[in-house]
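Supplementary material to the annual report.
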Amino acid sequence: MIRRGAIPTGALAWAVVLAGMLGLLALRGSVPWAFSYPSDWVLPATRWLNVGMDWFIAWFGPGFRAASAFLEWIMAGVRWLILVVPWSVMLLLITLAAYVLSGLRLAVFACLAVLYMAVIGYWRESMNSLSLVALSVPVSVIVGFGLGAWAFLSARADRVIRPAMDLLQTIPAFAYLLPILLLFGFGPVVGLIASLLYAVPPMVRNTALGLGSVGAEVIEAGTMSGATPRQLFWRVRVPTARRQLLLGVNQTTMAAFSMVIIASIIGGTADIGWEVLSSIRKAEFGQSLIAGLVIALMAMVMDRITGALASRDATQSASTGPRGRVLGLAAGLVVVLAGLSQAFPALADYPQGWVVFPAETLNAGVDYLVVEFSQQIEAIKKVAFFYVMLPVKLGLVQTISPFSWGFAFTDTMKAGYAAVSVALTVLGGWRLGWPAAVVIAFCAMLLFYGLTGLPWPALIAAAVLAAHHLGGWRLAAGVLAGLGFLLVCGVWAEAMLSLYLSGLAVLLCFLLGGLIGILASESDALSSAVRPVNDTLQTMPLFVLLIPFVMIFKIGEFTALLAIMAYAIVPSIRYTEHGLRNVPGEAIEAALCSGCTRWQLLWRVKIPLAAPVILLGLNQTIMYAIAMLVIAALVGTNGLGQQVYIGLGDGDFGVGMVAGIGMAIIAMLADRMTQALSGATQTTTP
Amino acid sequence: MTHGDPNATANKAMQGQHAKLSCRHLWKVYGGEARDTLSRGAAEEDPAAVADKLRGQGMIPAAVDVSFDVAEGEIFVIMGLSGSGKSTVVRCLSRLVEATHGQVLMDGDDLLAKSPREMIEIRRHKLGMVFQHFGLLPHLTVIDNIAFPLTVQGLSAKESRRRVEKVIAMVGLEGREDSYPNQLSGGQQQRVGIARSLATEPDLWLLDEPFSALDPLIRRQMQDEFLHIQTELKKSIVFITHDFLEALRIADRIMLMRGGRIVQVGRPIDLIVDPADDYVAEFTQDVPLTRVLTAGDVIAKGRGNVEGLVRVSPGTKVETLLPMLSDHPEGLAVEPEDGPAELLTPESVIAGLSRHARETGAGVEAVAS
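Predicted assembly:
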């Protein structure tokens, strides 16, 4: 962190930037180019990308189409295999797997979840999604393990593989779909390839990490036992890293599934994601909720089963005696059930007559609630919109009007606002040092003119300066290059809209999540209440989160904000609680012996010591918010997310790609900046 | 008081015995390429100067011109604080770390010249090693951990079973065969580590701080069992420790290291009575003499009547003699393997202790002044 009363050159630079911003704002009439980047200056990157892609497809398209046909064939095989299994047998198999891997509780849960899929009549759609996952997970795991092992064994490979994986994970999931779509053509193959690309990185990361963290002595012991290098790798290193590898399998499964769901936006798969999406589009909330619950349940069952695989002790797999008998019994049961389902068709295909599909009832219920509470809902929406969202987006100067706030923003009031801002800035500078003054002054300007109303030269200068303070010249150069790309590609305005929405979501998540995290760290009861909610939110495929908010608040930016927050608040809560709970016991005892009250203990000891971890949570919150931003574009936002979506809809590679890269740039810059911030805190709090 | 060349002391104790392992002018330098500098010859003439020169070039000499011999059946303890280079030396012996320069002769054969394939064979049959934090494989049971070196050799299940059962009995792990490492206490885990290192019936047994991670009580018990196993197997042993009292208990000879260099090599009593410098003296000054001196060191001057007295061997520690003397105030008979028995009385023990205390005290004073 910047020390209090440090080198005034920094303060001077900030003063220049802020003064420049004010100057540009004062002259806004005569320098329109500083407020909206002139379209003549835009590089035709979109066209170049399209031309390049056309050329690429012309040359390599047939190869990709052939690969696509081949994959299609395999997929059809897997789908046939999964659908040919009678539903009753599938139910039994999944329940038994859950029982063997974890125990009775998970078995009951898995059984009910699978039963639900059959009872509501979404069996075929669910199994279609499952077959995509069943194909993409093993392939991702094998490829990911191979790449991870290669990265571990060769430093040179590591230098290429690691950044490539970083990139694959920062580019928003939607942006993958477009090039794949163009290369491989429409159809379920797109979902498969996208889920492969998205699911491989976690396996690579966990493999490299796991293999690398095997204790030196274990390896030495293996060497001294006379193991050859091959034996050392397969018999010592890999089994010792087992837990981390299985954690990789868990994460890979979840990533693959979430991408399979996202990819259903392309259609043509008749899977459960498509059901959700089309019912959202038709505003059939009952249907979307029922289908969304299938996705949620599938995600939870997959997560718990693969998670149990990872957390299972080596010791448990040893007690093969009783488990072995259970397996034998299970095999017998499966055979018997399979035979029975030949005799009784109801056990093979779930009969239509048994389907319970309460969509209409649900719709009626939702309608009733929305109508009954329409005034309250409208009030919440209005408050959030006029008093929080619009000021950040457009500034008070455009927001305050008799229509919205009930009065006009007079010149006297503006003068008053300016005076209060200056007073607060001076006070902040005097009490907390000049960085605080800079932050206050910037926020005051932001609130007055709105993020979209600030001139881009000043915003870029401020971002570069902040990057320089946090991470030195290299980070500053990276920020300059990244923002420069957004500018010259002509997506600055969209980028600011994205920044406004995700920034606001991040800020609210950080405050609210931080508060919940602090409370949870002080109260065990709250902590154990919050944990399952967090787990559920995190395993949920992204666009399931949209459903409840769309149902109540309809389509719009406010709904998008809430959906983003629902997903991005989780790391804020988790990291804050984790950081606070892991403050060294000695530090707390020392503070208590010095006579700290509980309040002082929290503010003066725990939070400062936990700051690096809390900031890491901020970092994750930002990444989550940006990931959700694209999904939120489905419910009506303007910005880069919408551009990606438009590109996808029109098959316009250039538009979608520029927007996708733009989002990746924002994500990467935010990531590096917050990491630098977290690192800087770490050095001051040993 | 004479302080000879440490290696002279080393070789004196070797007289008439066959050297199982000879380490010759071993160097390990980290952080740069020192091979050329060392092979020029100056390294053997003035190692200290060469080490300083390498340090000046930003390299880290972790082992500096280390030479010693280990006799057949001897327990050779390498002792030093952390960073003294003792772990580096033992890893160079087994080539877990590649030495920069020097020779490691096992039965006259230079291990450093072996190909990787040959080295695997040597590790499979001639070397066994025990690690400070056990180095057990978490996914294997006790029995599979112990059998691991035999498994990688491709030994038949029957033969490996026979050998494993033998070592399991030796270390007292019967009944825990099917447990996993994380179900065992530290002491038991190290028993597994010891059993594994012995399963291949190695000639040379390397132990890297095997008891340092254990509680003091367990440590003591494990030392006793280690000595017990050794009286049975008579392996040639290189034992690393940072605990001087442990070194005293088990060592035939001790090599004290500091900053990668040998400070002194000798029998435990040599280090105490005749420390090579103030560093050694500082180490030894608080050591209770009763733990170091043996019956042979404190016999009565002049011949006494040993008729009808309880007999002890000359190697018995004074510590052990004291309670015996309180039961037999008339004295004990010290009986060497060859030659007549000699008398040991409470008075002779007191005289011996005070004589040695004076000597060591004088040593410290002489250095201090």
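Residues 182 and 651 of chain A are 7 Å apart (CA to CA).
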